[in-house]
From TrEMBL:
SUPFAM superfamilies: Thiolase-like. Keywords: Transferase. Signal peptide: none annotated. The keyword Transferase applies. The keyword Phosphoprotein does not apply. This is 3-hydroxy-3-methylglutaryl-CoA synthase. Belongs to the thiolase-like superfamily. HMG-CoA synthase family. InterPro entries: HMG_CoA_synt_C_dom, HMG_CoA_synth_N, HMG_CoA_synthase_prok, Thiolase-like. It comes from the Bacteria. Transmembrane segments: none annotated. Residues 174-248, 253-326 form the Hydroxymethylglutaryl-coenzyme A synthase C-terminal domain. Residues 2-165 form the Hydroxymethylglutaryl-coenzyme A synthase N-terminal domain.
């Protein structure tokens, strides 16, 4: 029995900052961002957008037309949770009008947890193939102003329906794993922005790739030559290029520079504009590959390297299914990216500094999002979500 991704759709916020603006403010050459870290823009959430509204917007096209009673599990993966207790997935469950006979839970391990959600979902489906699992990853990546991490912010959500009818991609069973207790990137409960040891984090990322690949081989995984494409976690797109070079060296592959780049290039397009979306970024990368590749990818094997600081990493593979093109949401994604509004530095600061009230008062939030759901108010410590007219 094949198990894997039946449907996949992403969403990002209504605004974006071109990194040219940040380069001018910081008086540095914009090529450091465009070429050095491989980012052109970063999505910025409007005050009435958050991980819940983005998650619900990503999942809406996935659940429309589905028999909702078959979706008996919703796994919500996030680093940027909005509540220490209640799962953000429960709000999403209501906004999507899912069946009450459904288990909902939130998973956290920095940028990795969506991958564990997919693996858990595959296991559930293998046990009861008539059931489907909705996996949603949603994050807002925030670093301190004027820090080296500032140009690697962004936000986005991706929704995947995992089932025994994987119209997009079969997830193969072997995984390579690596966990190590390190402090490369973390966010204590009292902080809204991440703490990061930037250079160290890239080193741990590469070390984790090496160990995950070794474990993958030990577990009986495919040889490097059996892969056609690789999709990496993309905190910034240059990181994926560095990772792929690292893997090529490790396996002793003799590919030309062009052949190596061709294995990852199409996974990078959307993330160059969206920025880091933590848990969602690797699967936005998959969407980018599926929707931007010039050739039919049916039967092609994709390697995934998922990394979450702290750290946990997993390497696994998937095989693209015949006819997958008919099930993509390419127009939805391209319209979404095209209609985002560019902001100037003053607006970026207004969005960045937008207050997060903690006094339990009544805080209505003006309508700004162009998406289908919004955070309308924070009232008596409760987040109030609603559908918009769009
Ligand atoms: N033209 C072209 N390239 C230029 C340039 C110019 N004018 N100026 C500089 N560059 C190049 C540099 O040579 C460098 O290239 P290499 O990496 O190939 O050497 C690149 O631009 C970046 O320059 P710096 O190393 O000077 O950049 P920095 O120190 O200011 O910051 C960073 C880079 C450490 C990644 C920082 O953005 C950061 O801390 N980001 C957040 C942490 C992060 O994303 N870590 C990734 C691993 S952790 C993870 O994956 C989890 C997660 O999502 C956070």
């Amino acid at each position: 029995m094949k198990v894997g991704i039946e449907d996949i759709c992403f969403y990002t916020a209504s605004y974006y900052l071109d990194l040219q603006v940040l380069a001018e403010v910081h008086q540095i050459d914009v090529e450091k961002f465009y070429a050095g870290i491989g980012q052109e823009q970063m999505s910025m959430a409007a005050p009435d957008e958050d991980i819940v509204t983005m998650a619900a917007a990503a999942a809406l096209p996935v659940v429309e037309g589905q028999d909702k009673s078959a979706i008996r599990t919703l796994l919500f993966a996030s680093e940027s949770g909005i509540d220490q207790s209640k799962s953000a997935g429960v709000y999403v469950h209501r906004l999507l009008e899912l069946d009450p006979a459904c288990r909902v839970v939130e998973l956290k391990q920095a940028c990795y947890s969506a991958t564990s959600a997919i693996q858990m979902a595959c296991a559930l489906v293998a046990r009861q193939p008539q059931q489907k699992v909705l996996v949603i990853a949603s994050d807002i990546a925030r670093y301190d102003l004027d820090s080296s991490g500032e140009p690697t912010q962004g936000c986005g959500a991706v929704a995947m329906l995992i089932s025994a009818d994987p119209k997009i991609m079969e997830v193969e069973p072997v995984s390579g794993l690596y966990t190590e207790d390190v402090m490369d990137f973390w966010r204590p409960n009292y902080r809204g922005t991440a703490l990061v040891d930037g250079k160290y984090s890239t080193k741990v990322y590469l070390k984790s790739l090496k160990h995950a690949w070794l474990d993958y081989q030990q577990q009986g995984g495919h040889a490097f030559s059996e892969f056609n494409y690789f999709c990496y976690h993309q905190p910034f797109t240059r990181m994926a290029q560095k990772a792929h070079s690292h893997l090529l060296k490790q396996v002793g592959a003799s590919l030309s520079a062009a052949e190596a780049e061709a294995q990852i290039a199409d996974t990078l397009s959307y993330n160059r504009s969206i920025g880091n979306s933590y848990t969602a970024s690797i699967y936005i990368g998959l969407t980018s590959l599926l929707e931007n590749a010039e050739h039919d990818l049916a039967g092609q094997r994709v390697g995934f390297f998922s990394y979450g600081s702290g750290c946990v990493a997993e390497l696994f593979s998937g095989v693209v299914q015949p006819g997958y093109q008919a099930h993509l949401h390419k127009d939805y994604h391209q319209t979404l990216l095209a209609r985002r509004q560019s902001v100037d530095y003053a607006t970026y600061r207004r969005l960045y500094d937008y207050p997060n009230p903690v006094d339990g008062g009544e805080h209505a939030i003006a309508a700004e999002t162009t998406g289908p759901f919004r955070l309308a108010a924070i009232s008596q410590h409760k987040r109030i979500y609603e559908k918009t007219a769009s």
